[in-house]
Amino acid sequence: MSSIVDDDEAVRKSLAFLLGTPQVSVRSYETAVAFLAHIGRVERGCIVTDLRMPEIDGLELLRRVKSLGVDLPVIIITGHGDIALAGKALEAGAVDFLEKPFDDEAILAAVRSAFRQQERDTMRETKGMEV
Amino acid sequence: MPVRNRSDVASRRETVLRYAIAVAAVALAFTARFVLASILKDQAPYLFFLPPVLLAAGVGGFGPGILATGLSIPLVFFFIANYGTVGWTEVANGAVFVLIGVGTAWIGKRLRQARILALTREAHLQSIIDIVPEATIVIDGRGIIQSFSATAERMFGYTAAEAIGNNVTLLMPSPYREEHDGYIERYRDTGEPRVIGTGRVVAAQRKDGSTFPIELAVGEIWPAGQRFFTGFIRDLTERQETEARLQELRSELAHVSRLTEMGGMASAIAHELNQPLAAIANYLKGSRRLLDGSADERLVILRDAIDSAADQALRAGQIIRHMRDFIGRGGSERQIQSIAKLVEEASALALVGAKDQGIHVTFDFDPRVDLVLADKVQVQQVLVNLIRNAIEAMEESSERNLTVRTTPADDMMIVVQVDDTGSGISEEMAARLFQPFATTKPRGMGVGLSISRTIVEAHGGQIEAGPRAGGGTTFRFTLPAVTKEESSDAHR
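Output (C-alpha coordinates, whole complex):
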Protein backbone atom coordinates (compact mmCIF):
# COMPACT_ATOMS: atom_id res chain seq x y z
CA MET A 1 0.00 0.00 0.00
CA SER A 2 1.22 3.52 -0.71
CA SER A 3 0.45 6.53 1.48
CA ILE A 4 0.01 9.88 -0.22
CA VAL A 5 0.64 13.02 1.86
CA ASP A 6 -0.22 16.29 0.07
CA ASP A 7 -2.14 19.36 1.18
CA ASP A 8 -3.42 20.00 -2.37
CA GLU A 9 -6.65 18.09 -2.80
CA ALA A 10 -6.50 17.89 -6.60
CA VAL A 11 -3.01 16.46 -6.53
CA ARG A 12 -3.94 14.01 -3.77
CA LYS A 13 -7.03 12.69 -5.51
CA SER A 14 -5.53 12.57 -8.98
CA LEU A 15 -2.48 10.73 -7.74
CA ALA A 16 -4.66 8.24 -5.90
CA PHE A 17 -6.58 7.74 -9.16
CA LEU A 18 -3.38 7.26 -11.19
CA LEU A 19 -1.80 4.82 -8.73
CA GLY A 20 -5.12 2.98 -8.47
CA THR A 21 -5.17 2.09 -12.17
CA PRO A 22 -2.46 -0.60 -11.86
CA GLN A 23 -4.13 -1.78 -8.62
CA VAL A 24 -1.72 -0.12 -6.19
CA SER A 25 -3.73 0.38 -3.03
CA VAL A 26 -3.64 3.93 -1.79
CA ARG A 27 -4.45 5.88 1.33
CA SER A 28 -4.34 9.70 1.27
CA TYR A 29 -3.56 12.18 4.05
CA GLU A 30 -4.04 15.92 3.91
CA THR A 31 -1.22 16.70 6.32
CA ALA A 32 1.90 15.10 7.70
CA VAL A 33 0.33 15.30 11.15
CA ALA A 34 -2.60 13.19 9.95
CA PHE A 35 -0.26 10.65 8.46
CA LEU A 36 1.94 10.44 11.58
CA ALA A 37 -1.19 9.81 13.63
CA HIS A 38 -1.84 6.70 11.54
CA ILE A 39 1.73 5.56 11.09
CA GLY A 40 1.35 2.72 13.54
CA ARG A 41 -1.21 1.10 11.25
CA VAL A 42 0.92 1.43 8.11
CA GLU A 43 3.15 -1.60 7.97
CA ARG A 44 4.21 -1.97 4.38
CA GLY A 45 4.35 0.00 1.15
CA CYS A 46 5.78 3.44 0.59
CA ILE A 47 5.12 7.11 1.31
CA VAL A 48 4.63 9.65 -1.48
CA THR A 49 4.78 13.08 0.12
CA ASP A 50 4.65 16.68 -0.99
CA LEU A 51 7.54 18.90 0.16
CA ARG A 52 5.93 22.23 1.00
CA MET A 53 3.17 21.75 3.52
CA PRO A 54 2.07 23.77 6.54
CA GLU A 55 3.28 22.76 10.02
CA ILE A 56 5.36 19.72 9.11
CA ASP A 57 6.91 19.79 5.65
CA GLY A 58 8.02 16.82 3.57
CA LEU A 59 11.64 16.88 4.73
CA GLU A 60 10.63 17.01 8.36
CA LEU A 61 8.16 14.15 7.82
CA LEU A 62 10.95 12.13 6.24
CA ARG A 63 13.21 12.76 9.24
CA ARG A 64 10.48 11.84 11.72
CA VAL A 65 9.68 8.62 9.86
CA LYS A 66 13.37 7.70 9.95
CA SER A 67 13.74 8.64 13.61
CA LEU A 68 10.70 6.54 14.51
CA GLY A 69 12.53 3.60 12.95
CA VAL A 70 9.65 2.97 10.51
CA ASP A 71 10.98 1.21 7.44
CA LEU A 72 8.91 2.90 4.74
CA PRO A 73 10.65 4.21 1.58
CA VAL A 74 9.81 7.86 0.99
CA ILE A 75 9.26 9.45 -2.45
CA ILE A 76 9.23 13.24 -2.46
CA ILE A 77 7.09 15.13 -4.97
CA THR A 78 7.25 18.90 -5.29
CA GLY A 79 6.03 21.75 -7.45
CA HIS A 80 9.04 23.75 -6.37
CA GLY A 81 12.14 21.73 -6.88
CA ASP A 82 15.72 22.58 -7.37
CA ILE A 83 18.91 20.56 -7.33
CA ALA A 84 19.94 21.69 -3.85
CA LEU A 85 16.59 20.65 -2.41
CA ALA A 86 16.68 17.29 -4.20
CA GLY A 87 20.16 16.74 -2.80
CA LYS A 88 18.95 17.50 0.71
CA ALA A 89 15.98 15.13 0.36
CA LEU A 90 18.10 12.27 -0.95
CA GLU A 91 20.66 12.90 1.78
CA ALA A 92 17.92 12.70 4.38
CA GLY A 93 17.02 9.26 3.03
CA ALA A 94 14.37 9.77 0.33
CA VAL A 95 14.44 7.08 -2.35
CA ASP A 96 13.27 9.38 -5.14
CA PHE A 97 12.53 13.01 -5.90
CA LEU A 98 9.99 14.01 -8.60
CA GLU A 99 8.98 17.42 -9.82
CA LYS A 100 5.29 18.10 -10.46
CA PRO A 101 3.87 17.57 -13.00
CA PHE A 102 5.44 14.15 -13.52
CA ASP A 103 5.03 11.41 -16.07
CA ASP A 104 2.89 8.39 -15.04
CA GLU A 105 5.70 6.00 -15.90
CA ALA A 106 8.11 7.95 -13.68
CA ILE A 107 5.89 7.88 -10.58
CA LEU A 108 4.87 4.25 -11.10
CA ALA A 109 8.49 3.22 -11.59
CA ALA A 110 9.44 5.07 -8.41
CA VAL A 111 6.65 3.40 -6.41
CA ARG A 112 7.44 -0.09 -7.77
CA SER A 113 11.13 0.40 -7.07
CA ALA A 114 10.30 1.52 -3.53
CA PHE A 115 8.18 -1.63 -3.03
CA ARG A 116 10.97 -3.85 -4.29
CA GLN A 117 13.48 -2.14 -2.03
CA GLN A 118 11.22 -2.70 0.95
CA GLU A 119 10.82 -6.37 0.03
CA ARG A 120 14.60 -6.75 -0.18
CA ASP A 121 15.02 -5.01 3.19
CA THR A 122 12.40 -7.25 4.76
CA MET A 123 14.02 -10.39 3.34
CA ARG A 124 17.42 -9.29 4.60
CA GLU A 125 15.96 -8.68 8.04
CA THR A 126 14.23 -12.09 8.02
CA LYS A 127 17.45 -13.76 6.91
CA GLY A 128 19.33 -11.90 9.61
CA MET A 129 16.91 -13.22 12.18
CA GLU A 130 17.29 -16.80 10.86
CA VAL A 131 21.08 -16.56 11.18
CA MET B 1 59.46 78.83 3.29
CA PRO B 2 58.74 76.45 6.10
CA VAL B 3 58.91 77.77 9.67
CA ARG B 4 61.53 76.04 11.74
CA ASN B 5 62.58 76.44 15.32
CA ARG B 6 66.03 77.81 14.83
CA SER B 7 68.55 76.49 17.26
CA ASP B 8 70.29 78.76 19.74
CA VAL B 9 73.58 78.24 17.93
CA ALA B 10 72.17 79.61 14.69
CA SER B 11 70.62 82.53 16.52
CA ARG B 12 73.93 83.43 18.21
CA ARG B 13 75.77 83.17 14.92
CA GLU B 14 73.30 85.58 13.36
CA THR B 15 73.82 88.12 16.16
CA VAL B 16 77.58 87.93 15.75
CA LEU B 17 77.16 88.46 12.01
CA ARG B 18 74.97 91.55 12.54
CA TYR B 19 77.62 93.16 14.76
CA ALA B 20 80.42 92.04 12.44
CA ILE B 21 78.69 93.85 9.58
CA ALA B 22 78.66 97.04 11.68
CA VAL B 23 82.38 96.71 12.47
CA ALA B 24 83.29 95.87 8.86
CA ALA B 25 81.26 98.80 7.46
CA VAL B 26 82.94 101.24 9.85
CA ALA B 27 86.37 99.77 9.04
CA LEU B 28 85.67 100.15 5.32
CA ALA B 29 84.58 103.79 5.79
CA PHE B 30 87.72 104.47 7.83
CA THR B 31 89.95 102.93 5.15
CA ALA B 32 88.30 105.01 2.41
CA ARG B 33 88.57 108.20 4.47
CA PHE B 34 92.17 107.33 5.33
CA VAL B 35 93.14 106.89 1.68
CA LEU B 36 91.58 110.25 0.86
CA ALA B 37 92.87 111.98 4.01
CA SER B 38 95.69 113.83 2.26
CA ILE B 39 93.08 115.53 0.01
CA LEU B 40 90.15 115.94 2.41
CA LYS B 41 92.22 116.83 5.50
CA ASP B 42 89.68 117.49 8.29
CA GLN B 43 86.74 118.38 5.99
CA ALA B 44 83.34 116.69 6.51
CA PRO B 45 84.79 113.79 8.54
CA TYR B 46 81.32 112.50 9.53
CA LEU B 47 80.15 112.10 5.91
CA PHE B 48 82.05 108.83 5.42
CA PHE B 49 80.69 107.34 8.64
CA LEU B 50 76.99 107.95 8.00
CA PRO B 51 76.58 105.09 5.50
CA PRO B 52 78.06 102.47 7.91
CA VAL B 53 75.68 103.66 10.64
CA LEU B 54 72.69 103.48 8.27
CA LEU B 55 73.76 100.05 6.98
CA ALA B 56 74.42 98.65 10.46
CA ALA B 57 71.10 99.98 11.77
CA GLY B 58 69.13 98.91 8.68
CA VAL B 59 70.50 95.37 8.53
CA GLY B 60 71.47 94.71 12.15
CA GLY B 61 69.00 96.86 14.09
CA PHE B 62 69.54 98.94 17.22
CA GLY B 63 72.64 97.34 18.76
CA PRO B 64 74.79 97.26 15.59
CA GLY B 65 73.60 100.84 14.79
CA ILE B 66 74.79 102.07 18.17
CA LEU B 67 78.03 100.09 17.79
CA ALA B 68 78.72 101.67 14.39
CA THR B 69 78.01 105.13 15.83
CA GLY B 70 80.24 104.48 18.83
CA LEU B 71 83.10 103.16 16.69
CA SER B 72 82.83 106.09 14.28
CA ILE B 73 83.28 108.84 16.92
CA PRO B 74 86.97 108.12 17.89
CA LEU B 75 87.82 107.49 14.22
CA VAL B 76 86.31 110.83 13.20
CA PHE B 77 88.26 112.54 15.95
CA PHE B 78 91.39 110.74 14.70
CA PHE B 79 91.12 112.68 11.41
CA ILE B 80 90.19 115.95 13.12
CA ALA B 81 93.08 115.64 15.53
CA ASN B 82 95.56 114.77 12.78
CA TYR B 83 94.48 117.35 10.20
CA GLY B 84 92.90 120.16 12.28
CA THR B 85 92.15 121.15 15.86
CA VAL B 86 89.59 119.81 18.31
CA GLY B 87 87.40 122.67 19.47
CA TRP B 88 83.84 123.08 20.85
CA THR B 89 82.49 123.07 17.29
CA GLU B 90 83.89 119.57 16.74
CA VAL B 91 82.51 118.40 20.05
CA ALA B 92 79.07 119.80 19.13
CA ASN B 93 79.30 118.12 15.70
CA GLY B 94 80.18 114.86 17.45
CA ALA B 95 77.18 115.17 19.74
CA VAL B 96 74.85 115.76 16.78
CA PHE B 97 76.38 112.72 15.05
CA VAL B 98 75.75 110.60 18.11
CA LEU B 99 72.12 111.77 18.25
CA ILE B 100 71.63 111.03 14.56
CA GLY B 101 73.31 107.66 15.09
CA VAL B 102 70.98 106.76 17.95
CA GLY B 103 67.94 107.94 15.96
CA THR B 104 69.03 105.89 12.96
CA ALA B 105 69.64 102.85 15.12
CA TRP B 106 66.12 103.16 16.59
CA ILE B 107 64.53 103.45 13.12
CA GLY B 108 66.69 100.52 12.00
CA LYS B 109 65.40 98.49 14.90
CA ARG B 110 61.78 99.19 13.93
CA LEU B 111 62.49 98.36 10.30
CA ARG B 112 64.15 95.12 11.30
CA GLN B 113 61.22 94.17 13.51
CA ALA B 114 58.78 94.89 10.69
CA ARG B 115 60.88 92.85 8.30
CA ILE B 116 61.02 89.90 10.71
CA LEU B 117 57.25 90.11 11.25
CA ALA B 118 56.63 90.16 7.51
CA LEU B 119 58.93 87.17 6.99
CA THR B 120 57.25 85.25 9.81
CA ARG B 121 53.80 86.02 8.44
CA GLU B 122 54.82 84.94 5.00
CA ALA B 123 56.27 81.73 6.41
CA HIS B 124 53.04 81.07 8.32
CA LEU B 125 50.96 81.74 5.25
CA GLN B 126 53.20 79.56 3.14
CA SER B 127 52.96 76.73 5.64
CA ILE B 128 49.17 76.99 5.53
CA ILE B 129 49.18 77.03 1.73
CA ASP B 130 51.45 73.98 1.71
CA ILE B 131 49.26 72.05 4.13
CA VAL B 132 45.69 72.72 2.96
CA PRO B 133 44.35 70.06 0.58
CA GLU B 134 43.42 72.79 -1.89
CA ALA B 135 45.95 73.93 -4.43
CA THR B 136 46.62 77.66 -4.29
CA ILE B 137 47.56 79.67 -7.36
CA VAL B 138 48.01 83.43 -7.53
CA ILE B 139 47.74 85.24 -10.86
CA ASP B 140 48.11 88.88 -11.66
CA GLY B 141 45.61 91.11 -13.46
CA ARG B 142 46.74 89.75 -16.84
CA GLY B 143 46.39 86.10 -15.86
CA ILE B 144 50.09 85.43 -15.39
CA ILE B 145 50.88 82.91 -12.65
CA GLN B 146 52.75 84.53 -9.74
CA SER B 147 52.65 81.74 -7.20
CA PHE B 148 52.05 78.01 -7.44
CA SER B 149 51.70 75.95 -4.25
CA ALA B 150 53.18 72.52 -3.55
CA THR B 151 49.67 71.02 -3.74
CA ALA B 152 49.23 72.66 -7.12
CA GLU B 153 52.46 71.03 -8.25
CA ARG B 154 51.13 67.61 -7.26
CA MET B 155 47.69 68.25 -8.71
CA PHE B 156 48.75 69.59 -12.09
CA GLY B 157 52.15 67.94 -12.59
CA TYR B 158 53.98 71.23 -13.26
CA THR B 159 56.72 72.44 -10.94
CA ALA B 160 56.30 75.95 -9.55
CA ALA B 161 59.28 77.03 -11.68
CA GLU B 162 57.55 75.74 -14.83
CA ALA B 163 54.21 77.30 -13.99
CA ILE B 164 55.20 80.73 -12.67
CA GLY B 165 55.37 83.30 -15.47
CA ASN B 166 52.96 81.38 -17.70
CA ASN B 167 49.37 82.37 -18.36
CA VAL B 168 47.00 80.46 -16.10
CA THR B 169 45.22 79.15 -19.22
CA LEU B 170 48.04 76.58 -19.21
CA LEU B 171 45.97 74.71 -16.61
CA MET B 172 42.70 74.76 -18.54
CA PRO B 173 41.30 72.63 -21.31
CA SER B 174 39.54 74.17 -24.30
CA PRO B 175 37.31 76.17 -24.53
CA TYR B 176 38.24 77.85 -21.21
CA ARG B 177 41.83 78.10 -22.42
CA GLU B 178 40.82 80.38 -25.28
CA GLU B 179 38.18 82.28 -23.33
CA HIS B 180 39.88 82.98 -20.04
CA ASP B 181 41.63 86.18 -21.11
CA GLY B 182 38.21 87.43 -22.17
CA TYR B 183 36.79 86.60 -18.71
CA ILE B 184 39.48 88.68 -16.99
CA GLU B 185 38.98 91.51 -19.44
CA ARG B 186 35.24 91.50 -18.96
CA TYR B 187 35.66 91.51 -15.21
CA ARG B 188 38.10 94.41 -15.45
CA ASP B 189 35.67 96.37 -17.60
CA THR B 190 32.36 95.55 -15.97
CA GLY B 191 33.35 94.45 -12.47
CA GLU B 192 30.78 91.70 -12.80
CA PRO B 193 32.11 88.54 -11.14
CA ARG B 194 31.54 85.00 -12.43
CA VAL B 195 33.69 82.88 -10.14
CA ILE B 196 35.10 85.55 -7.84
CA GLY B 197 33.73 85.24 -4.34
CA THR B 198 31.80 82.06 -5.16
CA GLY B 199 33.00 78.57 -5.90
CA ARG B 200 32.11 76.54 -8.94
CA VAL B 201 32.94 73.21 -10.48
CA VAL B 202 35.00 73.41 -13.65
CA ALA B 203 37.38 71.24 -15.65
CA ALA B 204 41.15 71.56 -15.34
CA GLN B 205 43.99 70.08 -17.34
CA ARG B 206 47.12 68.39 -16.06
CA LYS B 207 50.56 68.64 -17.63
CA ASP B 208 50.01 65.24 -19.31
CA GLY B 209 46.92 66.64 -21.06
CA SER B 210 44.36 64.74 -18.98
CA THR B 211 41.42 66.75 -17.68
CA PHE B 212 39.84 66.42 -14.26
CA PRO B 213 37.02 68.06 -12.32
CA ILE B 214 37.88 70.75 -9.81
CA GLU B 215 36.04 73.04 -7.47
CA LEU B 216 37.41 76.53 -7.94
CA ALA B 217 37.07 79.48 -5.58
CA VAL B 218 38.69 82.78 -6.53
CA GLY B 219 39.48 85.75 -4.32
CA GLU B 220 40.71 89.17 -5.42
CA ILE B 221 43.34 91.33 -3.74
CA TRP B 222 44.62 94.83 -4.47
CA PRO B 223 47.95 95.26 -2.70
CA ALA B 224 49.60 98.58 -3.66
CA GLY B 225 47.14 99.34 -6.41
CA GLN B 226 47.89 96.19 -8.40
CA ARG B 227 45.27 93.55 -8.99
CA PHE B 228 45.87 89.89 -8.09
CA PHE B 229 43.58 86.89 -8.08
CA THR B 230 44.05 83.95 -5.74
CA GLY B 231 42.51 80.64 -6.78
CA PHE B 232 41.79 77.80 -4.36
CA ILE B 233 41.39 74.52 -6.21
CA ARG B 234 40.01 71.25 -4.88
CA ASP B 235 40.44 68.06 -6.90
CA LEU B 236 37.03 66.43 -7.24
CA THR B 237 38.21 63.29 -9.02
CA GLU B 238 38.04 61.11 -5.95
CA ARG B 239 34.77 62.52 -4.68
CA GLN B 240 33.12 62.11 -8.08
CA GLU B 241 34.44 58.56 -8.34
CA THR B 242 32.96 57.76 -4.93
CA GLU B 243 29.65 59.29 -5.86
CA ALA B 244 29.62 57.49 -9.19
CA ARG B 245 30.37 54.19 -7.43
CA LEU B 246 27.58 54.77 -4.93
CA GLN B 247 25.19 55.64 -7.73
CA GLU B 248 26.24 52.51 -9.58
CA LEU B 249 25.72 50.37 -6.50
CA ARG B 250 22.33 51.93 -5.94
CA SER B 251 21.15 51.17 -9.46
CA GLU B 252 22.61 47.67 -9.31
CA LEU B 253 20.65 47.12 -6.13
CA ALA B 254 17.47 48.44 -7.64
CA HIS B 255 17.98 46.16 -10.62
CA VAL B 256 18.64 43.10 -8.49
CA SER B 257 15.79 43.92 -6.22
CA ARG B 258 13.49 43.89 -9.26
CA LEU B 259 15.04 40.66 -10.50
CA THR B 260 14.70 39.06 -7.10
CA GLU B 261 11.05 40.08 -6.92
CA MET B 262 10.54 38.71 -10.41
CA GLY B 263 12.34 35.53 -9.45
CA GLY B 264 10.22 35.23 -6.34
CA MET B 265 7.06 35.77 -8.36
CA ALA B 266 8.10 33.28 -11.04
CA SER B 267 8.83 30.81 -8.32
CA ALA B 268 5.46 31.32 -6.67
CA ILE B 269 3.61 31.10 -9.99
CA ALA B 270 5.52 27.97 -10.90
CA HIS B 271 4.50 26.31 -7.66
CA GLU B 272 0.87 27.34 -7.93
CA LEU B 273 0.54 26.21 -11.57
CA ASN B 274 2.43 22.97 -11.12
CA GLN B 275 -0.15 21.67 -8.65
CA PRO B 276 -3.16 21.76 -11.03
CA LEU B 277 -0.94 20.65 -13.92
CA ALA B 278 0.14 17.65 -11.89
CA ALA B 279 -3.50 16.85 -11.13
CA ILE B 280 -4.47 17.15 -14.82
CA ALA B 281 -1.58 14.92 -15.90
CA ASN B 282 -2.37 12.35 -13.22
CA TYR B 283 -6.06 12.12 -14.14
CA LEU B 284 -5.37 11.93 -17.84
CA LYS B 285 -2.55 9.41 -17.59
CA GLY B 286 -4.63 7.33 -15.19
CA SER B 287 -7.57 7.43 -17.60
CA ARG B 288 -5.36 6.39 -20.46
CA ARG B 289 -4.10 3.42 -18.45
CA LEU B 290 -7.69 2.35 -17.86
CA LEU B 291 -8.25 2.36 -21.60
CA ASP B 292 -5.09 0.34 -22.31
CA GLY B 293 -5.80 -2.98 -23.99
CA SER B 294 -9.24 -1.97 -25.13
CA ALA B 295 -10.31 -3.47 -28.46
CA ASP B 296 -12.91 -0.85 -29.31
CA GLU B 297 -11.54 1.29 -32.11
CA ARG B 298 -13.14 4.45 -30.76
CA LEU B 299 -11.72 3.85 -27.33
CA VAL B 300 -8.25 3.46 -28.88
CA ILE B 301 -8.66 6.90 -30.50
CA LEU B 302 -9.91 8.29 -27.17
CA ARG B 303 -6.99 6.74 -25.32
CA ASP B 304 -4.46 8.31 -27.71
CA ALA B 305 -6.19 11.71 -27.41
CA ILE B 306 -6.10 11.53 -23.61
CA ASP B 307 -2.46 10.56 -23.71
CA SER B 308 -1.68 13.55 -25.93
CA ALA B 309 -3.63 15.87 -23.60
CA ALA B 310 -1.59 14.55 -20.63
CA ASP B 311 1.65 15.13 -22.55
CA GLN B 312 0.58 18.73 -23.11
CA ALA B 313 0.09 19.21 -19.36
CA LEU B 314 3.61 17.85 -18.83
CA ARG B 315 4.88 20.19 -21.53
CA ALA B 316 3.32 23.17 -19.74
CA GLY B 317 5.23 22.03 -16.64
CA GLN B 318 8.45 21.99 -18.67
CA ILE B 319 7.83 25.54 -19.91
CA ILE B 320 7.34 26.79 -16.36
CA ARG B 321 10.51 25.04 -15.25
CA HIS B 322 12.49 26.66 -18.04
CA MET B 323 11.07 30.08 -17.23
CA ARG B 324 12.00 29.71 -13.58
CA ASP B 325 15.49 28.48 -14.41
CA PHE B 326 16.00 31.34 -16.83
CA ILE B 327 14.97 34.04 -14.37
CA GLY B 328 16.91 32.39 -11.57
CA ARG B 329 20.01 32.24 -13.72
CA GLY B 330 19.65 35.78 -15.01
CA GLY B 331 19.51 37.23 -11.53
CA SER B 332 22.42 35.47 -9.99
CA GLU B 333 26.11 35.53 -10.72
CA ARG B 334 28.20 33.97 -8.00
CA GLN B 335 31.86 34.72 -7.68
CA ILE B 336 34.49 34.59 -4.99
CA GLN B 337 34.15 37.79 -2.97
CA SER B 338 35.74 39.34 0.08
CA ILE B 339 33.02 39.57 2.71
CA ALA B 340 34.82 42.49 4.39
CA LYS B 341 34.69 44.44 1.13
CA LEU B 342 31.03 43.59 0.58
CA VAL B 343 30.20 44.76 4.10
CA GLU B 344 32.16 47.98 3.76
CA GLU B 345 30.57 48.90 0.44
CA ALA B 346 27.07 48.01 1.55
CA SER B 347 27.55 50.02 4.75
CA ALA B 348 28.70 53.05 2.81
CA LEU B 349 25.52 52.76 0.80
CA ALA B 350 23.19 52.12 3.72
CA LEU B 351 24.71 54.92 5.78
CA VAL B 352 24.15 57.56 3.11
CA GLY B 353 22.31 60.32 4.89
CA ALA B 354 22.55 58.58 8.27
CA LYS B 355 25.84 60.13 9.36
CA ASP B 356 24.17 63.09 11.04
CA GLN B 357 22.11 60.75 13.19
CA GLY B 358 25.17 60.11 15.32
CA ILE B 359 25.41 56.42 14.63
CA HIS B 360 28.59 54.74 15.77
CA VAL B 361 29.58 52.02 13.32
CA THR B 362 32.05 49.26 14.18
CA PHE B 363 33.35 46.55 11.87
CA ASP B 364 34.84 43.42 13.34
CA PHE B 365 36.14 41.09 10.65
CA ASP B 366 37.60 37.78 11.75
CA PRO B 367 40.91 37.44 9.87
CA ARG B 368 40.46 33.67 9.64
CA VAL B 369 37.58 34.03 7.20
CA ASP B 370 37.04 36.41 4.37
CA LEU B 371 36.28 34.81 1.03
CA VAL B 372 32.74 33.71 0.19
CA LEU B 373 31.11 32.35 -2.92
CA ALA B 374 28.30 34.78 -3.49
CA ASP B 375 26.42 37.04 -5.82
CA LYS B 376 27.92 40.34 -4.81
CA VAL B 377 24.93 42.56 -5.46
CA GLN B 378 22.43 40.17 -3.91
CA VAL B 379 24.45 39.83 -0.71
CA GLN B 380 24.91 43.58 -0.59
CA GLN B 381 21.17 43.94 -0.88
CA VAL B 382 20.77 41.74 2.20
CA LEU B 383 23.37 43.80 4.07
CA VAL B 384 21.82 47.11 3.05
CA ASN B 385 18.43 45.81 4.19
CA LEU B 386 19.75 44.73 7.57
CA ILE B 387 21.79 47.89 8.14
CA ARG B 388 18.92 50.17 7.10
CA ASN B 389 16.61 48.27 9.45
CA ALA B 390 19.14 48.66 12.24
CA ILE B 391 19.42 52.42 11.64
CA GLU B 392 15.65 52.80 11.65
CA ALA B 393 15.35 50.72 14.81
CA MET B 394 17.78 53.06 16.59
CA GLU B 395 15.96 56.28 15.69
CA GLU B 396 14.51 56.60 19.19
CA SER B 397 17.53 55.23 21.06
CA SER B 398 19.97 57.34 23.04
CA GLU B 399 22.76 54.85 22.36
CA ARG B 400 23.25 54.18 18.64
CA ASN B 401 25.83 51.50 18.03
CA LEU B 402 25.84 49.43 14.88
CA THR B 403 28.23 46.50 14.70
CA VAL B 404 28.84 44.28 11.69
CA ARG B 405 30.95 41.27 12.50
CA THR B 406 32.08 38.18 10.64
CA THR B 407 33.00 34.90 12.32
CA PRO B 408 33.70 31.38 11.08
CA ALA B 409 30.97 28.78 11.56
CA ASP B 410 30.68 25.00 11.19
CA ASP B 411 30.35 23.29 7.80
CA MET B 412 32.60 25.75 5.97
CA MET B 413 30.29 28.68 6.50
CA ILE B 414 30.84 32.31 7.47
CA VAL B 415 28.47 34.08 9.87
CA VAL B 416 27.73 37.71 9.19
CA GLN B 417 26.14 39.41 12.18
CA VAL B 418 24.50 42.83 12.31
CA ASP B 419 23.88 44.12 15.85
CA ASP B 420 22.01 47.25 16.80
CA THR B 421 21.14 48.95 20.07
CA GLY B 422 17.64 49.80 18.91
CA SER B 423 14.17 49.09 20.20
CA GLY B 424 14.47 45.31 19.70
CA ILE B 425 11.73 42.96 18.43
CA SER B 426 9.03 41.00 20.14
CA GLU B 427 9.16 37.20 20.07
CA GLU B 428 5.92 37.12 18.14
CA MET B 429 7.43 39.41 15.49
CA ALA B 430 10.72 37.46 15.42
CA ALA B 431 8.79 34.33 14.46
CA ARG B 432 7.22 35.84 11.36
CA LEU B 433 9.89 38.39 10.56
CA PHE B 434 10.98 36.78 7.32
CA GLN B 435 7.52 36.20 5.91
CA PRO B 436 6.42 38.49 3.10
CA PHE B 437 4.43 41.56 4.16
CA ALA B 438 5.38 41.28 7.82
CA THR B 439 6.37 44.73 9.02
CA THR B 440 6.56 46.85 12.14
CA LYS B 441 7.28 50.00 10.20
CA PRO B 442 4.61 52.63 9.64
CA ARG B 443 5.88 52.96 6.08
CA GLY B 444 7.24 49.90 4.39
CA MET B 445 6.06 46.88 2.53
CA GLY B 446 7.67 44.28 4.72
CA VAL B 447 9.27 42.49 1.81
CA GLY B 448 12.91 43.40 2.56
CA LEU B 449 13.56 40.56 4.98
CA SER B 450 11.58 38.10 2.91
CA ILE B 451 13.77 38.91 -0.09
CA SER B 452 16.83 38.72 2.16
CA ARG B 453 15.82 35.23 3.21
CA THR B 454 15.26 34.19 -0.41
CA ILE B 455 18.74 35.44 -1.30
CA VAL B 456 20.51 33.87 1.68
CA GLU B 457 18.78 30.51 1.21
CA ALA B 458 19.57 30.53 -2.50
CA HIS B 459 23.22 30.83 -1.45
CA GLY B 460 22.83 27.76 0.77
CA GLY B 461 22.82 29.82 3.96
CA GLN B 462 20.36 30.62 6.71
CA ILE B 463 19.14 33.86 8.24
CA GLU B 464 17.77 34.43 11.71
CA ALA B 465 17.00 37.23 14.11
CA GLY B 466 16.97 37.45 17.86
CA PRO B 467 17.32 39.81 20.80
CA ARG B 468 20.80 41.19 21.41
CA ALA B 469 22.28 40.76 24.87
CA GLY B 470 22.05 44.21 26.43
CA GLY B 471 19.17 45.39 24.26
CA GLY B 472 18.55 45.76 20.56
CA THR B 473 18.42 43.15 17.85
CA THR B 474 20.90 40.76 16.29
CA PHE B 475 20.55 39.52 12.74
CA ARG B 476 22.77 36.67 11.61
CA PHE B 477 23.11 35.03 8.26
CA THR B 478 25.50 32.46 6.88
CA LEU B 479 27.26 32.17 3.53
CA PRO B 480 29.44 29.38 2.16
CA ALA B 481 33.12 30.13 2.84
CA VAL B 482 35.83 29.64 0.26
CA THR B 483 39.36 28.78 1.30
CA LYS B 484 42.38 30.47 -0.23
CA GLU B 485 43.26 27.20 -2.02
CA GLU B 486 39.83 26.91 -3.56
CA SER B 487 40.00 30.51 -4.65
CA SER B 488 43.33 30.01 -6.40
CA ASP B 489 42.00 26.83 -8.03
CA ALA B 490 39.08 28.80 -9.36
CA HIS B 491 41.37 31.41 -10.85
CA ARG B 492 43.58 28.87 -12.54
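Chain A has one domain: 2-130.
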